[in-house]
Amino acid sequence: MPSLCQECCQPFETGRRCPRCHAPNIVTHPELFTLSIAHMDCDAFYASVEKRDHPDLADKPVIIGGGRRGVVSTACYVARIRGVKSAMPMFQALKLCPDAVIIKPRMAVYAEVSRAIRQMMEDLTPAIEPLSLDEAFLDLRGTEKLHGAPPAVMLARLVYRMRQELGLTGSIGLSHNKFLAKVASDLNKPRGFSVIGKDDTAAFLQDKPVRMIWGVGSATQAALAQAGIRSFTDLLRWQRDDLTQKFGSMGDRLWHLARGQDHRRISRNTPVKSISNETTFFEDTADPDLLDGHLWRMCEKVSDRAKAKELAGRVVTLKLKTAGHKIITKRQTLEDATQLADRVYRVSRAMLSQIPAGQAYRLIGAGLSDLCEASQAERSGDLLDPQAHQRGAAERATDKIRKKFGEDAILKGRALR
Q1: What is the reported pLDDT for 382?
Q2: Which residues are bridge partners to 132 per DSSP?
Q3: Which positions are annotated as active-site residues?
Q4: Going by C-beta distance under 8 Å and a sequence separation of 6 or more, which residues neighbour residue 341?
Q5: What are the start-end ranges of the E strands in 76-118?
Q6: H or E segment at 273?
Q7: Strand (E) or helix (H) holding 404
Q8: Going by C-beta distance under 8 Å and a sequence separation of 6 or more, which residues neighbour residue 331?
Q9: pLDDT score recorded for residue 415
């Protein structure tokens, strides 16, 4: 039976320990050296970076996120044992883990580490599809001759390099398509290496809950449950046409996934569909000046991200959440795409002014969608706002100064509210 040591990356035949380093941490599977579609997911990425940079936190529960009114971005495994999960409200997380160390995200640091991991992946294959800073699909078909080793060995070497050079760990899922590779990477975290082969796909999926499918959230689960579908076995009882008629394109996708079929290719250049930023307040607020200041900062961050990606958007979105958790979303389509903070702010500020005053909010956000290349932005100008061109030029000049002297070199007064 083909086997692989996760500690020293030595391939060998079946055994309880590695013949080279005698480690017991091995992975064994009949198709181990013939599969080539993988998903790598860093283990508690943000929290692991913080523990690496602050060794005194090694044995402590660490939560990355905002204040008590925010949500959990990432929780280390010590906190997860206590029941803390990503996207959980912070107040709930602190009830479960009152002694947790709360750390605000350092996105610039995480992005830098992510780039280093991405470069390690590039050394294996150009066919990489990132899903976020800490996870990506890899297609290693045709790379065995180049590296002199099968994909499984190269993946083990990847996470070994991550441990040695970056002090971080990751989990590997290896299979014959993207769906199963992503499922596999989550089976044995942290430091997992799980394999789902072609021959054992049907047996593996049998009776597994449909919530295992990436993208099937609570609302979809509830709709499926109403139809008597809670597991993959339930899905197999349905005809393809019936699923499609009841659930649309999602039904057709479910029919294929129930049989372990996923024909999506790993795409290196998956297009960005939207750019957004939002913040949750420590306390609900109806203060118009405070809302205005936060809205400007959100628009500025959206603009910075659009400029960094050389993108612009034709649709501006304003998002609010009331104290009662009601979400209010407003959108406006522009005649001309933009990436300027000034224009995103003015449009979203106008939408905010249309909402009756006096309502308290716990969250505010702004976004850009219907994206295009930056070269297509600001082409026609705004005849109703003759000063827009001057403000745009001033913003571009400000960007250059901030790039040279730092983010705080120039601040607008509204940013201090």
Answers
A1: 56
A2: 135
A3: 135
A4: 296, 299, 300, 302, 303, 304, 395
A5: 101-103
A6: none
A7: helix 388-405
A8: 315, 316, 317, 318, 369
A9: 46
